[in-house]
Amino acid sequence: MSHSLDPTEDAELVQAVQESLQQMSIELEHPQDAEAIQQLYQKAQRLLSHLAPDPLTVARVTGVLLVYQLPGTEPEEVKWFEGELQNSSDLESIEELVDSIFRPDAL
User: Fold this and answer.
1) Residue 68: CB partners within 8 Å, gap ≥ 6?
2) Closest among 57, 32, 36, 35 to 45, alpha carbons compared
3) 58 touches 41 (CB < 8 A)
4) Residue 55 phi/psi, 5° resolution?
């Protein structure tokens, strides 16, 4: 299922998202080059491939994966998150998962 009628718009959106994620990595003081961000984005796409997500959902998941690369992140956390993504049955559960990670009450 496609979420855009124009593949050019999707490509432009993906490029803009990747540039924003690269800027975010700099702000997090853990700079990533364009290739590293693209690899993270592709990893997110693979983890969500069973759901055919829109680029913004992939971007949100990529952002979480980027944060999980920061020093001090437990490898078990990353494995848990990736497992949750792969076991999600719909995009709404993905959105709820990402939202729950950043809510203070989730801590």
Assistant:
1) 77, 78, 81
2) 57
3) yes
4) -60, -30
Q: Which residues contact 21 (CB under 8 A, 6 or more apart)?
A: 32, 37, 40, 41, 59, 62, 63, 66
CB-based contacts of 29: which residues, under 8 Å, 6+ apart? none
Whether residue 39 is contained in a domain is answered as: yes
Report if residue 1 sits inside a domain: no
Which pLDDT tens digit goes with each residue over 18-59? 999 999 999 999 999 999 999 999 999 999 999 989 888 999
Q: In terms of residue numbers, what domain contains 65?
A: 7-106
pTM: 0.83
Listed in sequence order, the DSSP H helices in 68-105 are: 75-87, 91-102
